[in-house]
């Protein structure tokens, strides 16, 4: 699911990469705040747990610092 994001981020400059990693968290946080927290906490937990597991497995074999930072950013979403 996030493989396109990793490819895009590794081709960006460090400055643009950090801006993108910050901006891409704003809309999901707004959606979570207004939707999931009020209605379905179990669904939020399942989505979060799956995201943490998948991104943790993806980071194990990485040697590129940009890829590590990108996967870590995905994990923090």
Architecture overview:
The protein has 5 helices and no strands. It has one domain (3-76). The chain is flat, with a radius of gyration of 14 Å. The chain is mainly alpha-helical. It has helices spanning 3-10, 14-23, 26-39, 41-59, 65-76. The model has no long low-confidence stretch (mean pLDDT 79). Helix content is 82%, strand content 0%. Residues 1-77 form the NADH:quinone oxidoreductase/Mrp antiporter transmembrane domain. One of its GO terms (molecular function) is NADH dehydrogenase (ubiquinone) activity. One of its GO terms (cellular component) is mitochondrial inner membrane.
Tell me the Rg in angstroms.
14 Å
Strand content: under 5%
> How far apart, in Å, are the first and last alpha carbons?
14 Å
Q: Name the overall outline.
A: flat
Instruction: Give the oligomeric state of the chains in this entry, treating copies of one chain as homo and distinct chains as hetero.
Output: single chain
Individual helix count: 5
Output the structural class.
mainly alpha
Order of helices and strands: HHHHH
Largest sheet: none
Any idea how many domains? Answer: 1
Q: How many beta-strand runs?
A: 0
Task: Detail the poorly predicted runs.
Answer: none
Mean of residue pLDDT values:
79
Family: Belongs to the complex I subunit 2 family.
Membrane topology: Multi-pass membrane protein
Transmembrane segments: 18-36, 42-60
Domain NADH:quinone oxidoreductase/Mrp antiporter transmembrane: 1-77
């Amino acid at each position: 699911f996030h493989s396109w994001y990793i490819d895009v981020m590794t081709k960006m400059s460090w400055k643009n990469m950090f801006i993108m990693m910050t901006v891409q968290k704003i809309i999901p946080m707004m959606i979570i705040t207004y939707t999931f927290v009020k209605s379905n906490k179990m669904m939020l937990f399942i989505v979060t747990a799956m995201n943490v597991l998948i991104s943790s497995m993806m980071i194990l074999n990485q040697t590129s610092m940009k890829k590590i930072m990108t996967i870590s950013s995905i994990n923090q979403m």
